[in-house]
Amino acid sequence: MVHHHKSNRAVEGNPDDRRGMPLRPDVDALERRTQEDLRDVGLRVKKPERPAKQYEAIQNEVDREVDSGEMPSGKMSRAQRDAFPPTRYGR
């Protein structure tokens, strides 16, 4: 029989009650190991973009779209907006 490198608890959940899905992988540990492997083979390691910088870029794009009229803003009253879903009845 083949010996597993992980315990049943880590692979299959709780073996005592014989149910449950496998545990989710530790995303941070996986990312850290990936970065270490890339560094070990001599590849360039990219630094992840800061969440604050990502948020700022998205917010700037939304502001640009609202200013140009590509994206409607919430500045209109309900009576000024089109009916949603469209209705066949008159107002």
Biggest β-sheet description? none
SSE order, as H and E? HHH
Number of helical segments?
Answer: 3
Query: Which shape, going by the Cα principal axes?
Result: elongated
Strand content: under 5%
Radius of gyration: 26 Å
Summarize the structure.
The protein is an all-alpha fold and 91 residues long. Helices cover 41% and strands 0% of the residues.
Features:
single chain; 3 helices; 41% helix; 91 residues; mainly alpha; elongated
3D architecture notes:
This protein has 91 residues and is mainly alpha-helical. Helices cover 41% and strands 0% of the residues. It has helices at 8-12, 27-40, 51-68. The protein is elongated. The termini are far apart.
Q: How would you summarize the topology of this molecule?
A:
Blueprint: H1 8-12, H2 27-40, H3 51-68
